[in-house]
Amino acid sequence: MSADELAFWLRTRTVGTTIIIELHGELDMLAHRELGPRVHALVRAAATDVVVDLRAVTFLDAGGIRLLLAIREHVAYRGGVLRLIRGTPRVSHILRIVRLDGSFTIIDALPRLPAEGVEQPHRTP
């Protein structure tokens, strides 16, 4: 990987009134700094439901945890519902170690969502 390539990225799509945020790669302090403003803007513009997909997250540290907590705070402020799609065993273990696994609604797969209002997915570094 070159210095110009980031070890993380996100892809979003909206289905009905739900925004789905797929996080990919290493969620660390740099990811929090780079992705945080984009995620916050998405959540502010979203309807009430947000699903964060952690299945493609390969690394999670305090910066990534801070990003997830910030998303939770923004969604709660808007009166929304946040669900996390369970990540790898390593990511799930980290959430358990820091005792946050009970602070999120964690699901195993993308929930069935209405097909109306589907926007084209896009990738953001």
Describe what this molecule looks like in 3D.
- The protein has three helices and six strands; from the N terminus they run ββαβαβαββ.
- The protein has a six-stranded mixed β-sheet.
- α1 packs parallel to α2.
- The longest helix is centred in the first third of the chain and has 17 residues.
- The two termini are 14 Å apart.
Kindly summarize this structure in a few lines.
The protein is globular and about 30 Å long. The protein has a six-stranded mixed β-sheet.
Please supply descriptive tags for the structure shown above:
6 strands; alpha/beta; 125 residues; globular; 34% helix; 3 helices; 6-stranded mixed beta sheet
Note the topology.
Elements: E1 8-15, E2 18-27, H1 29-45, E3 49-60, H2 62-77, E4 81-85, H3 89-97, E5 105-107, E6 122-124
Parallel strand pairs: 2-3, 3-4, 4-5
Antiparallel strand pairs: 1-2, 1-6
Count the beta strands. Answer: 6
Largest sheet: 6 strands, mixed
Termini gap = 14 Å
Q: Given the helix and strand composition, which structural class is it?
A: alpha/beta
- Uncertain regions: pLDDT < 50 for 5+ in a row? 116-122
What is the average per-residue confidence, as pLDDT, rounded to a whole number?
85
Number of helices: 3
Q: Summarize the amount of helix as a percent range.
A: 25-40%
Q: Looking at the structure, what is the overall shape?
A: globular
User: What is the N-to-C succession of helices and strands?
Assistant: EEHEHEHEE
Gyration radius (Cα, Å) is 14 Å
Beta strand %: 25-35%
Going across the biggest sheet, name each strand in turn.
5-4-3-2-1-6
